[in-house]
């Protein structure tokens, strides 16, 4: 009833399509009361939980695969998922392209499953979906990528000030750059699992919104892929992957137009010569 009322409003075609997509997604998922505990909406983190977090050995930071505590998604969880017929073959070809052969292909699979695709995979109710989609890996890969690129910029540009270093790093890791790496070099846009109704959420007149969302998904998949390499084979291999595969491509797509900001450059120049902040009139 509520759905019919919403669709009767004079809202834009984009919002009507988005509401319909959301309605279909919700109708295929269990309610909050019947869902498994790990599938319910995350509650607010308590300070006592933060203080009670166990300390990890340094070797687990360097080699996460040595710690089994975080491995709540296994190959068995994906055995009954409705995956594309040729997906595993495509993942095998991807490993050849990037020069990394995964010890546990589940890490690679989860890196390429967008959270919007979970409903259509028809997973068992006991699967921890918050780790099955690539959101958690994207969070982790963002930091690994950031550390590698920050170190590269810091070492390669010894005369840059902090603001210049930040902008240099930003242009190498932003969504626009990473999406180009994903499409033109890694070609992972072909194997990312997204919701079938994703394109329906944006009407033709909202092509810019659709393109922005697509770039975000592609860039997030690059970060998740970096994290997958990290948890599968360790920090050294992940840093080598970024340095040898991701970074050269990112540098190729970075442009001076994106990095140069006249106002910021003026501020840095004045401060470097002791004039302080400029005054605009």
UniProtKB/TrEMBL annotation:
<feature type="region of interest" description="Disordered">
    <location>
        <begin position="28"/>
        <end position="49"/>
    </location>
</feature>
<feature type="domain" description="RNase III">
    <location>
        <begin position="91"/>
        <end position="234"/>
    </location>
</feature>
<dbReference type="GO" id="GO:0004525">
    <property type="term" value="F:ribonuclease III activity"/>
</dbReference>
<protein>
    <recommendedName>
        <fullName>RNase III domain-containing protein</fullName>
    </recommendedName>
</protein>
<dbReference type="GO" id="GO:0006396">
    <property type="term" value="P:RNA processing"/>
</dbReference>
<dbReference type="InterPro" id="IPR036389">
    <property type="entry name" value="RNase_III_sf"/>
</dbReference>
<keyword id="KW-0378">Hydrolase</keyword>
<dbReference type="InterPro" id="IPR000999">
    <property type="entry name" value="RNase_III_dom"/>
</dbReference>
<dbReference type="Pfam" id="PF14622">
    <property type="entry name" value="Ribonucleas_3_3"/>
</dbReference>
């Amino acid at each position: 009833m509520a759905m019919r009322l919403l669709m009767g409003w004079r809202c834009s075609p984009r919002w009507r399509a988005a509401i319909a997509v959301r309605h279909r997604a919700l109708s295929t998922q269990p309610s909050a009361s019947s869902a498994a505990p790990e599938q319910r909406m995350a509650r607010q983190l308590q300070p006592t939980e933060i203080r009670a977090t166990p300390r990890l050995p340094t070797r687990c930071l360097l080699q996460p695969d040595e710690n089994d505590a975080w491995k709540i998604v296994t190959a068995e969880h994906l055995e009954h998922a409705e995956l594309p017929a040729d997906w595993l073959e495509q993942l095998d070809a991807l490993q050849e392209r990037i020069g990394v052969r995964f010890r546990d292909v589940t890490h690679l699979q989860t890196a390429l499953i967008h959270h919007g695709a979970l409903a259509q995979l028809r997973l068992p109710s006991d699967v921890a979906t918050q780790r099955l989609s690539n959101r958690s890996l994207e969070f982790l890969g963002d930091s690994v990528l950031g550390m590698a690129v920050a170190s590269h910029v810091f070492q390669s540009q010894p005369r840059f000030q902090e603001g210049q270093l930040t902008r240099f790093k930003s242009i190498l890791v932003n969504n626009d750059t990473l999406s180009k790496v994903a499409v033109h070099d890694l070609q992972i846009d072909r194997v990312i699992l997204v919701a079938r109704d994703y394109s329906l959420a944006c009407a033709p007149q909202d092509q810019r919104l659709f393109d922005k969302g697509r770039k975000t998904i592609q860039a997030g998949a690059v970060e998740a892929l970096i994290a997958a390499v990290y948890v599968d084979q360790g920090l050294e291999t992940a840093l080598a992957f970024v340095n040898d595969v991701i970074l050269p491509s990112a540098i190729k797509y970075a442009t001076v137009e994106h990095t140069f900001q006249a106002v910021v450059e003026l501020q840095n120049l004045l401060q470097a010569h002791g004039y302080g902040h400029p005054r605009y009139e």
